[in-house]
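Q: what does this look like with pyridoxal-5'-phosphate bound?
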Amino acid sequence: MGEPFEQLLSQRTSSMQRNPIREILRALAQPGMISLAGGIPAPETFPIEDLYRINETVLDRYGPAALQYDLTEGFAPFREALAGYLATKGIDADAERLLVFNGSQSVLDTLGKILISPGDVVALESPSYLGAISAFSSYLPEYVSIETDDDGIIPESLERVLDQHKVKFVYLVTTFQNPTGRTLSLRRRQEIAAIVKDRNALVVEDDPYSDLRYRGEVVPPLQSFAPENTVYASTLSKIFAPGLRLGFCLAPPLIREWLYIAKQGADLHSNTYAQALATEYICGGFIDKQVPKIIDLYRPRQEAMLSTMARHFPQEYRWTKPEGGMFIWVEGPAGVDAEAVYWKAIERKVAFVPGKYFYVDPSDGLATMRLNFTRVDEAAIESAVAALGAVLKEFGAN
Ligand SMILES: Cc1ncc(COP(=O)(O)O)c(C=O)c1O
């Protein structure tokens, strides 16, 4: 006999599971642990002081409207503000075409709901954002992987995947990817735009990190090269406050219509008050002061991590040197089991995420690790990375 009510569960739950990273990260609660594991902003980046003023403005300007039920597509002044913000990235978005969601995670789930029938094929870069895999998996797809290198997905691999499979959509994090930190190069964006246009394929471009650039040239979103073939999803989680759950997307008309219908059935609309706060955060110029402050906090943390890795990691290890974002991706030599490294590192009070969780087939990523540099200060990063280097040396490399 199974658990009571087990027979009531839908077929869909067979492919759903708790986030495995959350499960292994229980060790983080131990006192003295330095976490390079999370993927969350440093709390000191939240504009608490500004929010006192923004709050007042919202109440004065919008009054009860900020607390009322609102449109499914999102609070109109917020969509206007977002259209202006997206224009600075080279995205031509009028407010009418934008849809606001509870975080970009909810965009991913809703896309899964409207696009994936059981057995449909979704193409992912390998490794890929775990939260997207969790969101899509509820709708029972099959996955195919697209090969990647330091410049992002390899166009020939994308072509092969599109030619060999009936792909519903291609999911990409094009800039400072989670988990690798890699950015799809400008040339590849142009090539990939040509490929998807030629084959009439649909790309979901998930772009939460592009504002967190510490050096190098800005690269326009893939969306700007193939607007008719791209669903562009983004969020204010990394540049304002993730707890407000403010994501949004710009999609081709038919996809937009079905996202709208699905959202209406799911939650009617997103939090009006949070959207009003974000409107003033953008239109009052607070965002233009805050993003450089966030960058100034994170850049030295990333530099501290990279330079300590260069001093303490064994020679056989390779890692990315991203120009922005929140993560560095490490590849160990074949035979290293990063999960075993994880448990040894925990004994030395350092946590990270073993990279295998970001692969559809975890055996592809046994020797990989994701390190986050945004949560703790430079001194903590240096001591954690040095300790991790010592653990890696114990694992046989030197
Ligand atoms: C690539 C990627 N997409 C989406 C999300 C979800 O962000 P949100 O807070 O907007 O739901 C994250 C969060 O870490 C992410 O890394």
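The longest strand covers residues 167-172. Residues 39, 103-105, 129, 131, 173, 178, 206, 208, 235, 237, 242, 247 surround pyridoxal-5'-phosphate (CB under 6 Å).
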